[in-house]
Amino acid sequence: MRNLALKAVNQYQTADNSSIQYADPHELILRLMNGAIERIAQAKGAIQYQDVKHKAEYIGKAISIVGGLEGCLDHSQAGNLSENLSSLYQYMIISLTEANINDDIAKLNEISDLLLEIKSAWEQIPGQSQNVSS
Fold first, then answer.
1. How far is CA 42 from the centre of its chain?
2. Number of H helices, E strands in the chain
3. Is residue 9 included in any domain, yes or no?
4. Domain count, the chain
C-alpha cells in the first residue's frame, strides 16, 4: 500500500518530498485527498478562465490521485467498506472525465464534496485503526 500511496502523492506534490518518506499511511491518504481536492479547485478556475490546457492537466492529476486512493484500498482488511469505496472512486474517475469533456463545474463540485466527506470520516479514525483502508 505504501508504494501506491507514494506514487499517488507524487502526482500532486511539488514541495519537499522528504516529508512524504516519513509520513504514516494515514497521513499519506490525507495528502492524497487534499491533493485531489486542490486539483479539482484548480480545474474549476481553469474552466472559468477557459484555459483548456490547464483544465485537462488538473483534472488528469485529480484522476491519477483518485486512482491512487483506490489502489491503496486493502480489500482483505475492510471488506464491504473497501468495495464500496472502490466503487465510489471509480464513479469519481468517470465523473471527472465527464467534467473534463463537458467543462462541468457542477460535476467537479460534486466530486470535491464527496472527497471532503470521505476525508472528514478518515480524519475521525482513531490512531490504532488508521492503517486499515483508505
1. 14
2. 7, 0
3. no
4. 1
